[in-house]
Amino acid sequence: MVISIKKLPRKKFVLPGNAACPGCPESMGLRYVGMALGDKAILVIPAGCTSVIQGLAPGSGLGFPIVNVPFASSDAVAAGLAAAKEVAGEDAVIVVWAGDGGTADIGFATLSGAAERGDNVIHICADNEAYMNTGIQRSSLTPFGAWTTTTWTGKRERKKDVPLIMLMHRIPYVATASIAYPTDFIEKLRKAASIKGFKYIHLHAPCPVGWRFDPAKTVTVAKLAVQTGMWILFEAENGRIRLSPPSKPYADKSRRRPLEEYLKLQGRFRGITEEGIRVLEKMVDENWETLLKLIEATS
Ligand SMILES: Cc1ncc(C[n+]2csc(CCOP(=O)(O)OP(=O)(O)O)c2C)c(N)n1
Ligand code: SF4
Question: Which of 23, 143, 175, 185 has its CA 20 to 30 A from that of 163?
């Protein structure tokens, strides 16, 4: 399915005057969710930047119906909402929109539970790779080597691979996406909405405030993540994995741009050593190797 941005609904779900910082990737991602799902979407949102972007009065920052929930309950609340809408015979798409902290750390138990039960929900992880709303603390999705206010000399551990963990829940749909590739993300959202059961989409969302880059460069940084191979776009339908078009060229390592091009734009990697860069490069290679083997095994 080829999507033309010009033919997408014009209705705005991210409203003027909202509280997002300039260059905010979460407001971009939410705009695409509105374009893909329109009035059918009901968002379940735990604490995080988006619960600030939405504003204090309903409908002041975001135009979606929203249920605000405590972190650890997001997917459980969404499951109940999906069941209630089904009983009522209403055609709604229940979407959990949570940050990396809300997905991979604090909300992980209910995420895993809803996936295992097959609740009819789309979970989107808006991954800005740290707890931004409370002042840039590390999460399990912060990459190796990155500065945060709780990893002053660079994070020592590698980024947790949540998309692959979700794949191993054997749910019908898992995908990765990037705010730099809106039509790819919109296509994946529409596909997820057409499938019954639990769906997981992991959206890479570079944050100018926490990653320390020029707010005009959000899309450039997001694109470089894909072009250097640091972030891989793929989707898995019923366990069959395939690379998404923007990432296909980079299965060939020689076509990837040097990782330094991605790192040097971001102040959070200012302190990384040559040795640290080599460690990160090795992690990128390992991620590709694993994914390519899985693609081969499931095709
Ligand atoms: C149970 C609980 N623990 C901690 C907090 C404080 N808190 C509010 S927002 C937030 C950060 C959320 O980070 P993330 O989920 O990555 O979303 P982001 O702010 O980056 O969009 C934290 C820790 C809270 N509200 N509830
Ligand atoms: S801190 Fe980052 S993710 Fe949060 S509102 Fe600002 S730009 Fe958006």
Answer: 23
Separation of 100 CA from ligand 2 center, angstroms?
Answer: 13
Query: What's the number of domains the chain is made of?
Result: 1
pLDDT for position 1: 64
The β-bridge partners of 43 are: 66, 95
Q: Which of 51, 134, 207 to mutate to test the pocket of ligand 1 (most atoms within 8 A of CB)?
A: 134
The rounded Å distance from CA 133 to ligand 1 centre is 6
Q: Could you identify the atom of ligand 1 that is nearest to the CA of residue 102?
A: 15
Q: Which phi and psi (to 5°) does residue 169 adopt?
A: -80, -5
- Enclosing domain of residue 259: 9-298
* Residue 209 beta carbon below 6 angstroms from any ligand 2 atom: yes
Q: Which two three-digit tokens encode residue 250?
A: 């980079």
Q: Is 4 within the bounds of a domain?
A: no
Q: Is 265 within a domain? A: yes
CATH no. for residue 26?
3.40.50.970
Residue 190 inside a domain? The answer is: yes
**247-283 per-residue burial string, b: 16 or more CB within 10 A, e: under 16:** beebeeeeebeebeebbebbebbeebeeebbeebbeb
CA-to-CA separations, 177 to 90, 142, 207, in angstroms, rounded: 28, 17, 15
pLDDT of residue 9: 83
Tokens representing 85 are 């809408």
In a domain, residue 2? The reply is no
For residue range 77-134, what is the model confidence (pLDDT) as tens digits?
999 999 999 999 999 999 999 999 999 999 999 999 999 999 999 999 999 999 999 9
